[in-house]
Specification:
Elements lengths: L4 H16 L16 H10 L4 H24 L9 E3 L7 H11 L11 H12 L2 E3 L2
Antiparallel strand pairs: 1-2
Length: about 130
């Protein structure tokens, strides 16, 4: 598998952000090491005024969207027939991510232990009208 130019730029942004940001200020992952809702909400809140948070958020959302699209496109049954189809296109931006997290995880008390990625991906799939069969 090769990485797209956009994916490479996102990976570079993540590495640069990780090297320049202070780990003590970042929200923690879940106890299982997954990206937490609190982490993504923190990035969403800081992105407008913090270039590092904006780079990390952009890389996270781009990687998440690109990966979801690849997985939907690659979803085939054992005989090679597609098992996923979508009425629309997968799409993701900061507003959609915030809405997905607020709708699926309304209680802030659980944000630190709630994985964000599955909630955002599920919302992307639902908004695109995707059906997974077989």
């Amino acid at each position: 598998m090769s990485i797209s130019k956009f994916g490479h730029a996102c990976l570079t942004a993540v590495v640069a952000a990780l090297c320049t940001s202070a780990p003590s200020r970042a929200a923690p992952t879940t106890s299982k090491g997954q990206v937490s809702v609190v982490q993504v909400m923190e990035m969403l809140s800081q992105a407008p005024s913090n270039p590092t948070a904006r780079q990390v958020l952009t890389a996270y959302l781009a990687g998440l969207g690109e990966t979801a699209g690849i997985l939907i496109d690659a979803a085939v049954a054992g005989d090679g027939t597609p098992v996923a189809s979508c009425k629309g296109h997968l799409s993701l931006d900061d507003k959609a991510a915030r809405h997905a997290l607020e709708a699926a995880a309304p209680s802030r008390d659980h944000w630190a232990e709630t994985p964000a990625t599955p909630l955002i991906v599920r919302d992307m799939i639902d908004r695109a009208g995707c059906k997974i069969t077989g």
